[in-house]
Automatic annotation (TrEMBL):
NCBIfam families: NifU_clost (TIGR03419). Residues 1-122 form the NIF system FeS cluster assembly NifU N-terminal domain. One of its GO terms (molecular function) is iron ion binding. The gene is nifU. It comes from Dorea formicigenerans ATCC 27755. InterPro entries: NIF_FeS_clus_asmbl_NifU-like, NIF_FeS_clus_asmbl_NifU_N. It holds the Pfam family NifU_N. This is Fe-S iron-sulfur cluster assembly protein, NifU family. One of its GO terms (biological process) is iron-sulfur cluster assembly.
Length: 147
């Protein structure tokens, strides 16, 4: 049911953890299952993503897609990171079962929320980036079930 790449990233997820004083942090909840994902970005003065970490309270497909997504945005500029869509991540993982496609959205949304946080803090515009719908702020996790 799952590709070898999905299993690999699920069993050995890359970039798990947090970044202290991150340039941008995004937390999102999945409307379908209530799972939660948080992404931390460390971005330098040239708008290059130097480091990225994630934490998730989610299913295996969410773990695998987040792991792959973090690998794909690392080293990219914030604008290039916009090209790391859930579709691109799924392709890189050799696909996901149809019932798990929504899980891959969590990583994309969390990256966008973290980029939004960074853009807001630094007064910059990232083309194509929209205000996250379901950003959950520190201390509001209890409300996550509503998303
Ligand atoms: Fe919740 Fe996959 S079932 S993210």
């Amino acid at each position: 049911m799952y590709s070898a790449k999905v299993m690999d990233h699920f069993e050995h997820p890359r970039n798990v953890g947090e970044i202290e004083d991150a340039s941008g942090v995004g937390t999102v909840g999945n409307a379908k299952c209530g799972d939660i994902m948080r992404i931390y970005l460390d971005i330098d003065e040239n708008q290059i993503i130097k480091d990225v970490k994630f934490k998730t309270f989610g299913c295996g497909a969410a773990v695998a897609t987040s792991s792959m997504a973090t690998e794909m945005v690392k080293g990219k500029t914030v604008q290039e990171a916009m090209e790391v869509t859930n579709k691109a991540v799924m392709e890189a993982l050799d696909g996901l079962p149809p019932v798990k496609v929504h899980c891959s959205l969590l990583a994309e949304e969390a990256i966008h929320a973290a980029l939004w946080d960074y853009a807001q803090k630094n007064g910059i515009t990232i083309e194509g980036l929209q205000k996250p719908k379901s950003d959950i702020h520190e201390g509001e996790e209890d409300e996550a079930e509503e998303y």
